[in-house]
Amino acid sequence: MTAAVVTGVGGWVPPRVVTNAEVAARLDTTEEWIATRTGVRTRHWVEPGTSTVDMAVMAGERALKSAGVTEVGAVVLATTTPDRLCPASAPEVAARLGLGPVAAFDVGAVCAGFVYALAVSAGLIGARVAESVLVIGADTFSSILDPTDRGTAMIFGDGAGAFVLRAGDCAELGALGPFDLGSDGELADLIMIPGGGSRDPAPETSDRYFAMQGKATFQHAVRRMATSSQAVLEARGWRADDVDWLVGHQANRRILDALADAVDLPRERLISNIDRVGNTSAASIPLAIADALAPDPTSSGGPLAPGDNVLLTAFGGGLAWGSTALRWPAVGQA
Q: Which residues constitute the catalytic centre (predicted)?
């Protein structure tokens, strides 16, 4: 049975670092309160003129270099912040990367977008529509945040992360699967941008901002990611003890800790970079992995090693959630 195998990883964040001190001054709070509540100490925001496509291209270039390839059969971009409502952003990303007239489209599942995009890409490979796929998660959340909203302005950052997938064998290192995906549209109002779509194409200023009901979102995020993770573990034939690393959507440090507890994993097995980059939505899982692979000046490298059992899980607006697993291949970030 044909599997989608991870063969390249890349990540990119804009150079501008936004500290808790800068955010706290605007929200009438303290640096430590933000860090304690969210786990975030810094995040990266784009400068004017930098867009989601720009970041996606940077991450895509690095992933292609990591994979040692210059061509793929398709590009799938997970994003909530496309450069325009129409057309999709993925074709422009493909063109700027010099990939030619390949299939290219966007996936919208908010913070669960990258796992959804991986599943879609695995389907393309399994159906032999494409022999390889560049999968990117990229979001410019600073463009949709209300700077006065304490519930969102302190959490989110901008960034992009990418995987290159190729057709391979299910027994290979890097083979993704199985997948577990789910949604609950009855709770769409927990995470949303009220205006800007066909229901309200000309919103008031406040309605164009991202809004989230934090307490309810916390509860659903932990429960849905834990249940989805357990479904993947059971289908894969793994126990919790078999998991070397859990890479959850970097929503909030307290959510990540509660997720590890719910899956019965030591918190030390969490891969997390939320303290440095914040919640980067669809980019968070590939960015966390890219950071884990990046050379560290104080050590010989990141925690991921070939053969490690890795569980990926995410939760976002929709509501939408999803999980998958793999044994890490001999792949590093370029």
A: 111, 249, 279
Among the listed residues 20, 252, 273, 279, the single catalytic one is 279
Classify strands 42-44 and 191-192 as parallel, antiparallel or unpaired: unpaired
**Is 170 designated active site?**
no
| Active-site residue, 279 included | yes
Q: Per-residue pLDDT for 297 more than 50?
A: no
- 2-169 classified as CATH 3.40.47.10: yes
Q: What is the pTM of this model?
A: 0.95
The residue ranges of every structural domain in the chain are 2-169, 180-327
Cα(first)–Cα(last) distance of the chain, in Å? 30
Query: Choosing from 20, 44, 111, 252, which is the catalytic residue?
Result: 111
Topology alike, domains 2-169 and 180-327: yes
Please give the share of the chain, as a percent, with pLDDT higher than 70.
97
Q: Which of 20, 44, 249, 273 is catalytic?
A: 249
Peptide bond into 15 cis (omega under 30): no
pLDDT-based confidence at residue 6 (cuts at 50, 70, 90): very high
Annotated active-site residue 249? The verdict is yes
Architecture in CATH for domain 180-327: 3-Layer(aba) Sandwich (3.40)
Q: Residue 160, CB half-sphere, CA atoms under 13 Å: how many?
A: 32
